[in-house]
Design brief:
The chain is α+β, with helices and mostly antiparallel strands. It contains 7 helices and 6 strands; from the N terminus they run E-E-H-H-H-H-E-E-E-E-H-H-H.
Length: 200
Amino acid sequence: VVAFRLGSQDCRGFYAMEMIDGVGPMPWNVRKMIPDAQIRRTLGLELARIMGRLHRANLERIRVHDLDPPSDPGETGAAELRKWRDVYLACTPPRIPIVDLAFAWLDHRADRVSGRVCLVHNDLRVGNVIVRDGRVAALLDWGTADLTGPAADLAKFNLPTFRGRSSNASGLIDWDEFLDAYAAVTQWRLDPQTIDYWTV
């Protein structure tokens, strides 16, 4: 199912959906659902190119309801930090020391950004992909899409949580090979410290 968030201030939000044939591999079963390592690698390369094209999209031609680009591309780290700290403070009456420490660590390094603002999926990984005949048929779960730093997508794709028991990014592909394929499309490569920041 492909879902797009739609709506306006005058009506309740709603989803437009379409059925897509294929399988939805998850981190813990991607090797079982796609047993051929070469097909997994090819799928990883395809996702690198898709992510690269998404990040190169012309923001002046994109009009997405409720998505406003940050005023300063150098402030994407600080903006994301403020947003998620507000969520944390609103949802967690008792403070959690390790989370407070993580926010302090992030606050101290909030300038570790690419200086770029892109349309990011914000959850592009195995588990949000429909695969048919070894190719990407659809990307799912656009509900957290945003205009922010591209490292948000890169970091999520390689989180240990989404690798299963594999050392490969999203259980599909060697991380450096993924980054090479992504850079071939975008014509830029993010600093490893920037990706590390967004991973945290």
